[in-house]
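Usage

Read records sequentially. Each one opens with the input sequence:
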Amino acid sequence: MSLFYKVEEKPPLMTSLILAAQHLLAALGAIIAVPLVVGGVLELSTQDKVVLVNAAMLISGVVTFIQCKGIGSLGIRLPNVMGTSFTFVGVSIAIGLEHGVGGILGSALVSSLVVIVGSYYMASIRKLFPPIVTGTVVTLIGLSLIPVAVDWFAGGQVGQANYAAVDNLIIGFLVLVVVMFLSQWGRGIISASAALLGMMIGFIACTLMGLVDFKPVQDAAWVALPSPMHFGMSFPVSGIIGMSIAYLVTIIESTGDFLALSEATNTKLTGKKLSRGVLCEGLGSALASVFSTTPLSSFSQNVGIVSMTGVASRHVVAITGAMLVLAGLFPVLAALVVIIPLPVLGGAGLVIFAMIVSGGVKILAKTEHNKRNSAIVAMGVGAGMAVTVRPELLANLPEMMQVVLGSGITLGSLVALMMNLILPGKP
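and closes with the structure output:
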């Protein structure tokens, strides 16, 4: 698709702020969810959970800014949002129950060397992703996110009392229709900010229906200073091994995100660019450990916003990074985003994530249609979606294998990579 703003273009300031806010709304909920889940399971005090959450927003913002703007050999210099990764939730809880939060952070700090060292070999890894594999991975990223958007659309998780309540479905459908209408028939900034405008309309509707709880905003602190080494650090060997495996998973996931982002921005992803992006991710995760929060990875959902809006400016997403920093320093600002009802996010999310699928199909359409390529796509997507929609499939496997295979993006990517290397014919 033609781009509304290209990677190196700088929109006017007010336009940039509006466009950056879309990325903030898409990312912030997931960024704060990881520390809240880990802190909740470990039964941390409210003060300690606040430290985890504030650090997550602050460091995510700093690393996002560096990824977009670049500093020397750091940063992919594409519109990439970074945030705390769900890949580390399981292993973090396992370490935390035995060694406390200090064990989580120490293990994550040492294990970040896996990503830092691995970044220097990304030029070779890039060669393993011809268009047939890239298209499969990009398609799988979008497909694996759609179930998340569906649950948001319905207002929570299956089994909850208000799941798929009529009010939720009405709000979700309203936002979806508005986003689609504005993105297709809007002009200029209206089209480019379709997701934000759709969510604003949905939020107003929710407020009028009495579905918004403003208490988190009233209770939020105005200012929160960073707390480096708040939990201390320890370095259990078992924790380092577990974290290292999780980091290997995120390398594969982020490589897929970067490939999807290069396609969405009409930018060639060289091995050198990929190395800079992964190195930034590794050093950012190390910084996260020092500042008392869990490791980071690239955010797939924000790739969909680029695909949908045609706004590929890295300078816009750098502003999103600055907004995340402010949210970390001024929690009351983050609270305003957190209170957005899930159906509002779901209505926009369905469109955004489906656009990633569309981008993957576009890549696959350029490849040769033969039995070999069809098998690669079928097995890659099939394997990835199997563990995405039925994670219970892995319940009886060793915990280490669950960490590696539990991500549909990772499993599907590995299957596509292996089949591309094994199957006879032209790779």
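Summary fields computed downstream for this record:
- The mean pLDDT is 89.
- The longest strand covers residues 82-84.
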